[in-house]
Amino acid sequence: MRTERIGFALCGSFCTFEPVLAALSRLSREYETVQPILSGAAATVDSRFGRAAEFRSRIEAICRRPVWDSLTQVEPIGPKKLLELLIVAPCTGNTLGKLAAGIADTPVTLACKAHLRNARPLVLAVSTNDGLGANARSIGTLLDRKQLYFVPFGQDDPEKKPASLVADMARIPETVSAALEGRQLQPVLL
Fold first, then answer.
1. Fewer Cβ neighbours under 10 Å: the N or C end of the chain?
2. Which residue segment(s) compose the domain that 166 sits in?
3. Which of 73, 53, 54 is nearest to 9 (CA)?
């Protein structure tokens, strides 16, 4: 098992939770420590894709540790250098916008800010209906930042949702490995 400590933050793009949890399971088998972090929406919102409490239980069982879902739980990530890599999957348009603007007011965005202060890799797995619309600027800004790596992404339904982008969640583990080596998995755009 690999000893790098991985943080895995989930935001509220509920339609991607099943493929994200499959990737989380793979990482939990490969790495000793995978610390789950939930956004407020991921921690509390029941949706047509499932109940928040059920997802939380599944995530904690996969990672074999309790979820962090508060600002006070994630703040020590930076000063204590708790993680070698942090991934945000799914990374919603809201979170992309906050990260691009330097806003750290949620457990996920504060975890990212705290982690990046140590110049360690942050991996983003985009999932937004506005990726080629309102969120395009945020994606462009983040693509240009050091220590940020993207899970390869593309349009998920160009006919019905022409502005929608989603990462290939099955490629999360290989993106994590590449980011730990300081390289962006290619091609970024699918």
1. N
2. 2-180
3. 73
End-to-end CA distance of the chain: 30
pLDDT tens per residue across span 112-122: 999 999 999 99
Q: Where are the beta strands (DSSP E) in the chain?
A: 2-10, 31-38, 85-91, 122-128, 148-150, 153-155, 165-167
Give residue 155's pLDDT: 95
Please indicate, yes or no, if residue 25 is contained in any of the structural domains: yes
| Structural domain contains residue 186 | no
Question: CATH code at 30?
Answer: 3.40.50.1950
99, two tokens: 């990260």
Number of domains in the chain: 1
pLDDT band at 67 (very low <50, low <70, confident <90, very high): very high
Measure the CA–CA gap between 169 and 20, rounded to whole angstroms.
6
Residue 47 DSSP one-character state: B
Tell me which DSSP letter residue 169 carries.
Answer: G
- SS3 for 102? coil
Strands (E), 11-95: 31-38, 85-91
User: 146 in a domain, yes or no?
Assistant: yes
Residue 185 lies in a domain: no
In the chain, the percentage of residues whose pLDDT exceeds 90 is 85
Position with higher pLDDT, 79 vs 46:
79
Q: Compute CA distances 27 → 16, 73, 93, 128, whole Å.
A: 17, 22, 24, 23
